[in-house]
Amino acid sequence: MTMNTQGRPTAPASEASNMAVETVSGSKGLLQHEALIFDMDRWSETGVDLPKLKGKAKSRLGKLKRTKPVELPGLSEPETVRHYVRLSQKNYAIDLGMFPLGSCTMKHNPRLNEKMARLPGFADIHPLQPFRSVQGAMQLIEDLQDWLLKLTNMHSVAMSPKAGAHGEYCGMMAIREALIDRGEAETRRRVLVPASAHGTNPATAAQCGFIVDEIGADNRGRVDMDDLRSKLEKTDDIAGIMLTNPNTCGLFETDIKEIADLIHDAGGYFYCDGANFNAIVGRVRPGDLGIDAMHINLHKTFSTPHGGGGPGSGPTVLSMALSKYAPFPVMTVDKRSGDRLIGYTDTLEELKGSDLQPFGRLTAFQGQMGMFVRALSYILSHGADGLKQVAEDAVLNANYIQARLKHLMTPAFDGYCMHEALFSDKFTADGIETIDIAKALIDEGYHPMTMYFPLVVHGAMLIEPTETESKAELDRFCNALESVARKAAQGDDSLKNAPYLAPMRRLDETQAARKPVLKWTPPAPEQIAAE
Ligand SMILES: *Cc1c(COP(=O)(O)O)cnc(C)c1O
Known about the structure:
Among the domains are: 143-327 and 360-367, Type I PLP-dependent aspartate aminotransferase-like (Major domain) (Aspartate Aminotransferase, domain 2); 384-502, Aspartate Aminotransferase, domain 1 (Alpha-Beta Complex). It contains 15 helices and 13 strands. It has helices at 77-89, 111-117, 120-123, 135-152, 164-181, 200-207, 225-232, 256-265, 298-301, 320-323, 369-405, 434-443, 471-490, 509-514, 525-530, and strands spanning 156-158, 190-194, 211-215, 238-244, 269-273, 293-295, 316-318, 330-334, 341-345, 410-411, 421-424, 450-451, 461-463. Strands 1-7-6-5-4-2-3 form a seven-stranded mixed β-sheet, sandwiched between helices. Helix 2 (111-117) runs antiparallel to helix 11, helix 11 (369-405) packs across helix 13 and helix 12 crosses helix 13 (471-490). The protein is globular, with a radius of gyration of 27 Å. The structure holds pyridoxal-5'-phosphate. Residues 103, 163-165, 198, 200, 244, 248, 273, 275, 297, 312, 314 line the site of pyridoxal-5'-phosphate (PLP).
C-alpha cells in the first residue's frame, strides 16, 4: 500500500484497481457522466426569463420569421454551467500534468503571456482601425519579426500564416512563385519528402501542385544520402525538398548542409519544417544551414496554448531568394510624417518601385495577434540566454527519459536524441501493441505519447517532455511508463482491455475517424411516443 508522507494510504489496498469498474451512474471517481446536451433537452427549461410580449406584438421579421422550433436544447442555468464544466474536465491539459505528445511541444504556458495578451492595447483593438491608432501593436509585430529573424538568421518573415501547416503552404507557394518567375514552374514539379515526414509536408506539396517523391531513411534515422543523390542525378525537374530538422525521429540531420548544397545545385529550394525548433532555438540558426523557407510554430516553441485544434500561428521565415514572393499583407514603414508610421499594404500599386511580387494573400488581416503577444512575452522574459537554455533543457529532459527507460523499452536508434525520445515496439511480447501501452498510460493519469508516428519506426512511441517538466515529474512519468512497459514485455493480457478507469473504455477509433457522427438527429416522433 502506498502512503503519503503523513502515513495515510494513497492507493487502494487490493489489486482491485486492475479490474474494470462499472458504475450505475456512469460517472467514475468524481468525473461526471452525462447524456448529450440534446438528449437532456427540455423545452420548458431556460436559463433566462424573457418578458411577456405586451399586446398583439406584430412581427417585423416578415418572411424571415421562424416557422419551425429553433432546436437548441433547453437547459436551466446550473445545468448549462455543469455541462460546460464537465466537458472541460474531460480534456487532458498541460495544466493538469505532463503531456508527452511527441512533435507537439506541449510545454507550460507562462501566465505572464496571458496577462500581456489581455492588455487592452493588444486585446481590444480591431484590425481595421487606422494604423496611427495601433502603432504599439504594430511595433510589437515588428519586434517579434526582429527576434524571429535573429534567431533564424533569415532574410524576411511572413507573419500571417495561422498554423504550422499554413506556414508550410506559405513557404511552398513562395517557392512555386519563384519557379513561375524563372519560367520553370511547368518543368520543376518534384518535391522530395523523407519517409519520416509529418503528414502535413506531403499534403502541402500536393496542395501546391507539386509531385511528392519519398526519400528513404537510413539505419541511423536520418535522410538516406545515397537515395537522395540518386534522385537528384541528371534531373531538371526538382522544385525542392521538405525536410524537418531535428527530424521527427528526434534526431539532428547531420548532413543538412550537404543536403542544402545538393538541392541548390539541382536548381531546387530547401523548405525546412521548423516545428521542432524548440530543440535548437538559440543554438542553431536555420539560415546558416542553407534553408530557403521555414515555418515556426509559435504555439509550440514560443509557448502559446494549443491543442484540440487551435489556435496556432506559423510565421514563415524566408531566405533572400524567396523574400520578394512573401504574401500580402506587406509591412510598410512610412517616415515621411516625421514620426515613424508602421502600416500594411495589400496592393501591388503601393509596392511600385520595389521588386516585391507577393504570391497572394493567405488570411484576412495580419495574423494571430494574441499569439504574437504571447510569443514576444515569452521571448523577452527568457532573453537570448534563456532561449538557449530552453533548447538545452528540452534535449536534456528527453535524453533523461531515454536513458531511464532504455533498459526495458527499445530506443528506435542508437545514441543521444534531441528533444524527443523515440522507442519502437520491439520489446513488447507477442500480441501486445503500442496502442495497449498508450491506453494503459491513461489509467496512470497521463495523456499517451504520440503513437505509430513517425512511420519509419515499427509501433513508434514518440515522447516529448519539453523543458518545463521537473526531474520529479519526469520520474513520476517514467515510473508509470516503466510499469506499463514491464507488463508489455511480460505479455500481460490485462493491457489489452485498458483503460479500465477512464469514463469511456476502448473506442472504435478507426470508425470514429472514418465515419464520424458529427450531427445529432432527433429521435423519430414514434419513438418518443413509445417511451
Ligand atoms: C506540429 C507539426 C506540424 C504542423 O503544425 P500545425 O501548427 O499543427 O499545423 C508540421 N510538422 C511537424 C513536424 C509538426 O510537429
